[in-house]
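Cross-posted from the bioinformatics board.
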Amino acid sequence: MKTNDVIIQFTAKIVFFIIFFFSIHIFLAGHYTPGGGFVGGLLTSSAIVLLVLAFDLNTVRNVLPINYTYLTATGLLLALATAAFPMFLGKPFFTHFFDYFDLPLLGKQSLHTAMLFDSGVYLVVVGVTMTIIQTIGEDE
Amino acid sequence: MVEKVLLIALALFSISIALSLYRVIKGPSMPDRAIALDTIGINLLSAIAIVSIVLKTKAYLEAILILGILAFIGTIAFTKYIERGVIVERKSND
């Protein structure tokens, strides 16, 4: 049976970017408003799941050639490195630092090392969710 | 006055959710249930918007958008399962 789902594929191509940018917004705004690494990661993986639903696993794997197991490992490494870095400076485990910087275009912003830990959480959540969905999706 | 209007709207949304729930339980075919679940999701989203007005907070606006996204993706997964029998295809057959 030949199928033709042009409407869902066209919708998915546009809605993917809306969900992805919203997830980035939720991830970056997690320090001051509801959100953070976990919800951002889940939303990113739901955007990829939308692509998987509209197309198929092989197409999405060609478009986003990411090994999600390595992504999980990278996230864990980033979180652990952020937590362990202050120990080399004689501070306790998980000490965080922040300071104010004058960034071009953005003006005065405060940068916090909790952001690095949160991006580790983000990568782990995306990696684990996509590994589960890919593994369940491609078994016969 | 505004409070009363908001509470009446909330009650109407819950009645609408209850009617959709009746369709989910009773619905003779699977597409009826899928559409009723989608309607429940959208009504829940509107109810959250009204609750956030009642509580005078902006903290629920992200939840509204996330609920819309999840209702959309869930409905697509349901419809694909009803139509094809699989949710995640390994390879498209065209």
